[in-house]
Amino acid sequence: MTDGPANVPQKVPHHVAIIMDGNGRWAQQRGLSRLKGHEQGAESVRAVMKGARNHGVRILTLYAFSVENWSRPAAEVNGLMNLLPRFLRKHEHLLHENGTRLRAIGRLNDLPANTRKDLFRVMADTEAYTERQLVLALSYGGRAELTDAVRALARKVKAGELDPEAIEPETFAGELYAPDLPDPDFMIRTSGEQRISNFLLWQLSYAELYFAPELWPDFREEQFAEAMRVYAGRQRRFGGVASC
Ligand code: IPE
Ligand code: IPE
Ligand code: MG
Predict the structure, then answer these.
(1) How far is the CA of 2 from the centre of ligand 2 (A)?
(2) Which of 36, 50, 138, 213 is least surrounded by CB atoms within 10 angstroms?
(3) Which residues lie closer than 8 Å to 188 by C-beta, 6 or more apart?
C-alpha cells in the first residue's frame, strides 16, 4: 500500500471550542417550541462528544449559556436550566467510559441550586480523569471573565501581594476561570452567524475560526468530521512567517 494523502496523519486540534447556535431557529422552522430545539441540541452535544473522541480531540469547550442569555423569557431560561441536569444524568456514563473530566466555566453561582447540584456532583465524580476534558461554559461571558480576573488581581495588589509592574499576560491568564487549560486551537460556530458573542475573548486570540452553516441540532458527527477536515487544511502562523 502506498502512502497516499489519505494515510498522512491529519492535524488534529487539541482543544476545540464551540458556540452551539441555532436551536431556536431549528424549532421555529418546524413549528415547535424553542425548548424542543434545545432538546435536539443536547443530542448534538452527545454526537460531538463522540466525534471529538474519535478524532483525538482532548478538550472540548461548549458555550451552553451566556451571561446575556439570562435576558431570555423565563420559560426558556428555566427549560435550559432543567435540561442540563437531565442531560448530565442521562449521559454521565459516557464521561466515565471515555475518561472525560467534566468542568465548568462562568459565573456558576448564578445557576439555580438544582442545576448546580448535578453539575458539581458529576464534576467531582470525574475529577480524576486526565484523558479528556469536557468544559461547559455556563452563565459565561468573556467580559465577565476578564472583569473577574481584574478584580482578583486588584485584590492581590491591594493586599500587597502583587506589584502592578509585575503583571504580565501570564499573570493575567492565571486568574481566568480555568487557568490550566490551553487556549482553543479551533473555534466552531454553527447556524451561519459569524460573531464571537462574548465567548473566550482572551483565549481565542490565535484560534482558527470556522463558521458552519448548519443549525446546532443538525450538527452531528458528519458535520464535525467536515470541520476537522477544514482545520487540517489550515496553516497557523502565530505572527511568525509561513513554514513550507
Ligand atoms: C443556542 O441556540 C442555544 C443557546 C443560546 C442557549 P439559540 O437558542 O440561540 O438559537 P437561535 O439562535 O435563536 O436560533
Ligand atoms: C451565543 O449564542 C451563546 C450560546 C451559544 C450559549 P446567542 O444566540 O446567545 O448569541 P447572539 O445573541 O446571536 O449573538
Ligand atoms: Mg442564537
Answers:
(1) 46
(2) 213
(3) 16, 17, 18, 19, 210, 211, 212, 227
Give dist(CA 64, CA 192) in Å, integer: 17
The alpha carbon of 222 and the centre of ligand 3 are apart by a number of angstroms equal to: 22
Q: Classify domain 27-145+185-232 at the CATH superfamily level.
A: Decaprenyl diphosphate synthase-like (3.40.1180.10)
Residues in the chain: 244
In 3D, which of 29, 37, 21, 36 has the Cα closest to residue 214? 21
Q: What are the DSSP E strand ranges found in 24-74?
A: 59-66
The pLDDT tens digits along the chain (244 residues) read 334 455 556 799 999 999 999 999 999 999 999 999 999 999 999 999 999 999 999 999 999 999 999 999 999 999 999 999 999 999 999 999 999 999 999 999 999 999 999 999 999 999 999 999 999 999 999 999 999 999 999 999 999 999 999 999 999 999 999 999 999 999 999 999 999 999 999 999 999 999 999 999 999 999 999 999 999 999 999 999 987 5
**Catalytic residue of the set 69, 78, 82, 198:** 69
Give the ligand whose atoms come closest to the C-alpha of residue 62.
Answer: 2
Q: In this structure, which amino acid lies at residue 13?
A: P
Rounded-to-integer distance, Cα 193 and Cα 19, Å: 10
